Amino acid sequence: MAAAVKLAESGQICTVFEAAKTLGGRARRITYKGAALDNGQHILSGAYTELLRLMALVGVPDTAFDRVPLNLTFAWPTAGAPTAFALSTPTLPAPLHMAAGLLSAKGLNWAERLAAIRLLRALKKSRFKVDARMSVAEFLRTHQQPTKLIQFLWQPLTISALNTPLATASAQVFANVLRDALAAGRAASDLIFPKVDLSQLFPDPAAHWLAGKGATVKSGVRVTAIEKADAGFDIIYGAGSDAQPEVRETFSHIILAVAPHQLGSFASLDSEIQAIFSNAVDHFQYEPITTIYLAFPPQNTSSTILMPRSMLGRTNGMVQWFFDREALSNQNGNIGVYAGVVSASGMHERWSLDEIATVALRELRDWLPNLPAPLWHKVVHEKRATFACTPNLTRPASETAARGLVLAGDYVACDYPATLEAAVRNGCHAADIVHADM
Ligand SMILES: Cc1cc2nc3c(=O)[nH]c(=O)nc-3n(C[C@H](O)[C@H](O)[C@H](O)COP(=O)(O)OP(=O)(O)OC[C@H]3O[C@@H](n4cnc5c(N)ncnc54)[C@H](O)[C@@H]3O)c2cc1C
Fold this sequence. Notes:
There is one protein chain. Helix content is 31%, strand content 23%. With 438 residues, it is an alpha+beta fold. It has 3 domains: 2-65 and 194-284 and 390-437, 3-Layer(bba) Sandwich (FAD/NAD(P)-binding domain); 70-189, no CATH class; 286-387, Polyamine Oxidase, Chain A, domain 2 (Alpha-Beta Complex), CATH 3.90.660. Strand 15 (311-314) and strand 16 (321-324) form a beta hairpin. The protein is globular. The chain binds flavin-adenine dinucleotide (FAD).
């Protein structure tokens, strides 16, 4: 959708094919028992400049999200226990906001606070270039980062942004994230919480805006094959049945913006195109993300079941972060929905979805012992949520051996890990390549 919007911005009108009925891919709305949920709880960062720009361009109102200064709070797993760690950035200009935030972080001693500042200063001095072969764990060891600082700051940041465990996460990509989110302007470190479902946050308004420009968005249409044609490429779609006959349509250029593991699903008689599909991401490995939604009966003011913060980290256990979705968005006015997030692989992958929900409920009750029985739960386990962002991973370039066939998506080479911003920046870059070629 980002590529289509960027093309339309430069006057090129395109057709978007989306296999699913709902737009948004991995960041899309799902509905369950009448409640608007998402394929996974997402947060955006103030550093997502291109996504925020496109959202504004297609008319997403500021009321669609809540933008707040960085606040990372972890609580011990007992009701009323003191905060284990809290980092918040005051409204000072950069870089004072981050220095002041780190120096006043709760739960760290002075040596730990200064170690964090030392690491950011060392990164700045090296212009955020680190040994590309290093994992985040090795990098933190080299910079003698204390255990508590790793537990409460560096590990959660790595897992949230790279969705890859410290021992195998790329230190260079981690440094890129710190450069743009923590060490840049004050606004870049803001956290942005969607107040609408993820399809409404960008792809639905983008489709509406694109229609106004004359572009076509065909949802529920899966492309099955791509072939070279005299005037560009043929794409083949449609089930091939009487109800949905197979259609062959020619386009001058194609931007292939699927998830990396979906690249292999296209057929082609052309060996050059076939090689693009099979070689680009053969070496990729993937990490899961599990989101556990727990719905409770309506709240009332006398028996509030709100968490102390609407995004709260756990010091240990299965769930890493809990989100109070109603406090964040009030999307499902008549019920309270909490989302627990478990990023990257772990023990929970051996459990059934119901067992995962039971553990999440027990962990939420550590803080909120008076929670009533949930009305329902819904666990979304995305096995291949993101590619594993490991050191020296070769990510394919946008341009392929077949001129006019351009790759986009979060996995294509760029500074960012698999995030919404990576997908959007790569989409815009692909659009620029096509526009230049036209
Ligand atoms: C649970 C979860 C939580 C996440 N949390 C965050 C977060 O908090 N912040 C963040 O920035 N990022 C987060 N991410 C990552 C983010 O969602 C992805 O990086 C981003 O959505 C990737 O977008 P994409 O366009 O590259 O790929 P996708 O979103 O995977 O889009 C690819 C699209 O191609 C379509 N498609 C595939 N094959 C065909 C075909 N043959 N024909 C037609 N269409 C086809 C698919 O249906 C899909 O819609 C999270 C991801 C998950 C799964």
